[in-house]
């Protein structure tokens, strides 16, 4: 798992930094669209996750034991899981914006105010960080556990006591419903309608159609492959009354969304496409100069 975290960090961080640079420039222009604010917020959520990956690498290197202290364990887990769940409603918000732009173009243009994007982003962050405060609550919950061997390093946000599971498992189930299944249903409906409308209009060019289908496919991949297994573990854990052992692999897939999101940025924004193309040309020129 350590090698996967390293790959995610080395690929996801530069891609999201390029996207951040493009979106900051776009948002600083007069009257930015709400979708660009949502995309910027999604980039920030990804960067938070990526900046916490070195701590997950250390954890994986120590065979999923935590050598960095109690406080850093809580902060890392809280930020890591909150950043994952920030993405789900932000992706749903982007899907809603795309659907409205083609289904109700006149109303969309009239109501395209930046403040709506700011409000939607704040709500997404509040929902995710509020729900994931369960990480802090469970960690400091009084239990009857006397602890293990003092010589062993502790696990971080694992090996829960029965008292902790009584609180944690119902919250995980509610979190799965509110921050995964509902935004996924909203997103699937919006992109299904968005793609159908785009394909039904003969005046829409071939490139725009491909970008619409690519955007829908990558977003669906994010929900089903990246977020799906982790949230299924919440449901399974609730009914089996335990925290599943395969959650570590599911968490690994969830972190992969920070590498997938740049594709969403590429399909969504001409500013990002230009920024990526510019960086790619720079790399090609640099490679050509090295080869002599």
TrEMBL record:
<dbReference type="GO" id="GO:0004930">
    <property type="term" value="F:G protein-coupled receptor activity"/>
</dbReference>
<dbReference type="GO" id="GO:0071398">
    <property type="term" value="P:cellular response to fatty acid"/>
</dbReference>
<keyword id="KW-1133">Transmembrane helix</keyword>
<keyword id="KW-0297">G-protein coupled receptor</keyword>
<protein>
    <recommendedName>
        <fullName>G-protein coupled receptors family 1 profile domain-containing protein</fullName>
    </recommendedName>
</protein>
<dbReference type="GO" id="GO:0005886">
    <property type="term" value="C:plasma membrane"/>
</dbReference>
<keyword id="KW-0812">Transmembrane</keyword>
<dbReference type="InterPro" id="IPR000276">
    <property type="entry name" value="GPCR_Rhodpsn"/>
</dbReference>
<feature type="transmembrane region" description="Helical">
    <location>
        <begin position="75"/>
        <end position="94"/>
    </location>
</feature>
<keyword id="KW-1003">Cell membrane</keyword>
<feature type="transmembrane region" description="Helical">
    <location>
        <begin position="36"/>
        <end position="55"/>
    </location>
</feature>
<dbReference type="InterPro" id="IPR017452">
    <property type="entry name" value="GPCR_Rhodpsn_7TM"/>
</dbReference>
<feature type="transmembrane region" description="Helical">
    <location>
        <begin position="6"/>
        <end position="24"/>
    </location>
</feature>
<dbReference type="Pfam" id="PF00001">
    <property type="entry name" value="7tm_1"/>
</dbReference>
<feature type="transmembrane region" description="Helical">
    <location>
        <begin position="245"/>
        <end position="268"/>
    </location>
</feature>
<keyword id="KW-0807">Transducer</keyword>
<comment type="similarity">
    <text>Belongs to the G-protein coupled receptor 1 family.</text>
</comment>
<keyword id="KW-0675">Receptor</keyword>
<feature type="transmembrane region" description="Helical">
    <location>
        <begin position="212"/>
        <end position="233"/>
    </location>
</feature>
<dbReference type="InterPro" id="IPR013312">
    <property type="entry name" value="GPR40-rel_orph"/>
</dbReference>
<feature type="transmembrane region" description="Helical">
    <location>
        <begin position="171"/>
        <end position="192"/>
    </location>
</feature>
<feature type="transmembrane region" description="Helical">
    <location>
        <begin position="115"/>
        <end position="141"/>
    </location>
</feature>
<keyword id="KW-0472">Membrane</keyword>
<feature type="domain" description="G-protein coupled receptors family 1 profile">
    <location>
        <begin position="15"/>
        <end position="265"/>
    </location>
</feature>
